[in-house]
Specification:
By secondary structure, the chain is α/β, with parallel strands linked by helices. It has 2 domains: 214 residues, Isopropylmalate Dehydrogenase, CATH 3.40.718; 136 residues, Isopropylmalate Dehydrogenase (3-Layer(aba) Sandwich). 43% of the residues lie in helices and 19% in strands. Helix 11 runs antiparallel to helix 12. The structure holds 3-isopropylmalic acid and manganese (II) ion. Manganese (II) ion (MN) binds next to helix 10.
């Protein structure tokens, strides 16, 4: 197969971790006989520096013409404490989501046996937890009308959702639940918010079309608690943009390290595959960041963008092997030997090439 991949490494540790993901993609392509081409583009602070725009038109076109986008991270501390900055790196991410119509953000949370002791939660609570958060990504407060009144002393954001936006994300959620353990939890705040009442109304309309799936409804405050008191309860969680942003950061601690969590954003145009950890500027350029989330994002890319499940599995197996053999960066090393970003990337790539597929 010919794979046409847009590479948007972005800022901070983005370029380093995407560099390791590319090694794994290359290894998979050599092993399985695929032909890959990469198309580099700027996004985030590096794009502002160069083009004055965090998601320039040329980057959009590169994404549009690709089969999949491998994305690193955006963000630079020089913008963080300046609420008046006219352009911000994060706007690049939001523009990309909106322009590519990436309405479904998939963030799977799994635990690795050898790492459960790393979780700040009790081992018996997290061991075996395995769920998928599906966050609506192009609606709600992030994109609703916002502004200032009273000469700037009053501010508002609008949490607006249209029926078609809710229906399409719920449909994805029911379909994903069908391919997993058939349990869907719809998270909202329907006791207070009108937009949440519409979500719940539409979910209740659709649920009878999926009689094989157990659908339940949970208020977001209760879900926040349940995620850390009983994460094994969940199989698929679906929720709106802002709730999903908050809950997925919370969910990431279940696995023991944010450095392990990959994501896929899919929708109308080219899908984007990215680690959820952000640009981690303190570590940029030091060759210390954990590349496994970026590498696992490449696995998601093979599975979701190309339907190449064996290729995805080959990457996952190599990542598991690196963890089991303690070939890990400092965030996971504990008192053991610390490997650099590129050493972990090299190890995973060579494991992919030299090993059979273990099913
Ligand atoms: C995320 C991030 C982004 C978001 C920021 C960087 C705009 O936190 O992908 O979760 O809030 O969606
Ligand atoms: Mn977030």
């Amino acid at each position: 197969m010919k794979l046409n991949i847009a590479l948007l490494p972005g800022d901070g540790i983005g370029p380093e971790v995407i560099g390791q993901a590319v090694k794994s993609v290359d290894a998979v392509c050599r092993k399985f006989g695929h032909e890959v081409s990469y198309h580099f583009a700027y996004a985030g602070a590096c794009a502002i520096d160069r083009f004055g725009d965090a998601f320039p038109e040329v980057t959009y076109r590169t994404c549009l013409e690709a089969d999949a986008v491998l994305f690193g991270a955006v963000g630079d501390p020089k913008y963080d404490n300046d609420p008046t900055a006219p352009v911000r790196p994060e706007q690049g991410l939001l523009a990309m989501r909106k322009q590519l119509g990436l309405y479904a953000n998939l963030r799977p949370v799994e635990t690795f046996k050898s790492l459960v002791h790393k979780s700040p939660l009790k081992e018996e609570l997290v061991d075996g937890a395995d769920f998928l958060c599906i966050r609506e990504l192009t609606g709600g407060m992030y994109f609703g009308e916002k502004g200032r009144l009273d000469g700037g002393d009053t501010a508002y954001d609008t949490n607006i959702y249209h029926r078609f936006e809710i229906e399409r994300i719920l449909r994805q959620a029911f379909e994903f639940a069908r391919r997993r353990r058939r349990h869907l939890t719809v998270v909202d705040k329907a006791n207070v918010l009108e937009s949440s009442r519409l979500w719940r109304q539409i979910a209740q309309e659709m649920a009878p079309q999926y009689p094989d799936i157990t659908t339940d409804y949970m208020y977001v405050d209760n879900a926040a608690m349940k995620l850390i008191t009983g994460p094994k309860f969940f199989d698929v969680i679906v929720t709106e943009n802002t709730f999903g942003d908050i809950l997925t950061d919370e969910a990431s601690v279940v696995s023991g390290s944010m450095g392990l969590l990959a994501s896929a954003s899919i929708g109308e145009k080219t899908g984007v595959y990215e680690p959820i950890h952000g640009s981690y500027p303190q570590a940029a350029g030091k060759n210390i960041a954990n590349p496994l989330a970026a590498i696992l994002s490449a696995a998601m890319m093979f599975e979701y963008a190309f339907g190449l499940m064996d290729e995805g599995r080959a990457i996952r197996n190599a990542v598991s092997a690196s963890i089991e053999n303690n070939i890990v960066t400092e965030d996971l090393a504990g008192s053991g030997q610390v490997f650099s970003t590129s050493e972990v990337g090299d190890w995973v790539a060579s494991h992919i090439e030299s090993n059979g597929i273990i099913r």
